[in-house]
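Hi X.,

You mentioned you wanted examples for the new student's onboarding notes, showing what a folding record looks like when two proteins sit in one file. Here is a clean example. The first protein comes first, with its sequence line followed by its structure tokens.
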Amino acid sequence: MNDTQWDFVHNLASEAKWAPGLREIFEYRDLGIKAGTKGDYIAHLIRHDGKTTKDEVQKWHVHDCTFQLVYVLNGWATFEYEGQGRRTIRKGDCILQTPRIKHREIACSDDFEVLEIVSPADFATRIVEAPPAEVEPAE
């Protein structure tokens, strides 16, 4: 954790600003946590923007982070995780992705929306080789 004291944050829904981000088919709403924690964490809402463009993150990739939590607010998405197989996450589901786990998105609904919390706030995303073929566990 950063030695600098964190700031109190009250992010108002009435003042929400949505912007492009990592994924071309999603838009992002920064919740002010990156600034409030001096970069220790980022929390943002991510929602499907209606585009059907394929993007690089649908390939196998990793995030260079130490913590990543995804909570589904609406819709569904199917991901494939190294060592975990395909998992479909739906409204109310939560995923704690282990650091640098190889994964990819297979598909998502048009109404897909999640809360994502990551540490550190500034993390790299790298395209990687697919893991060896694995037996698919049941969803």
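Then the second protein repeats the pattern, sequence line and then tokens:
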Amino acid sequence: MTSKIYVGGLPFSTTDQELKGLFDEYGTVESARVITDKLSGRSRGFGFVEMSNGQEAVAAIAELNGTELGGRSLLVNEARPQAPRQDRAEVGWR
């Protein structure tokens, strides 16, 4: 079972490959993705990493949370499930 990890505080220049490399040291990384703005394509400063082993994920979180990358302090923790979105029609958007 994979473990999904949230990584906040990323430098805006961080790539998916750099994010993966940061976590490779702690175990098998299934995927690593820096979240980007849909319109500009710029990084939003956070991303998600999926690791194949829960124990490796816990070790990575413990070791990387609070460390610096590119002059910014990382916030690393277990990702929470995404909240369901309301349909735009339900909230009155047009």
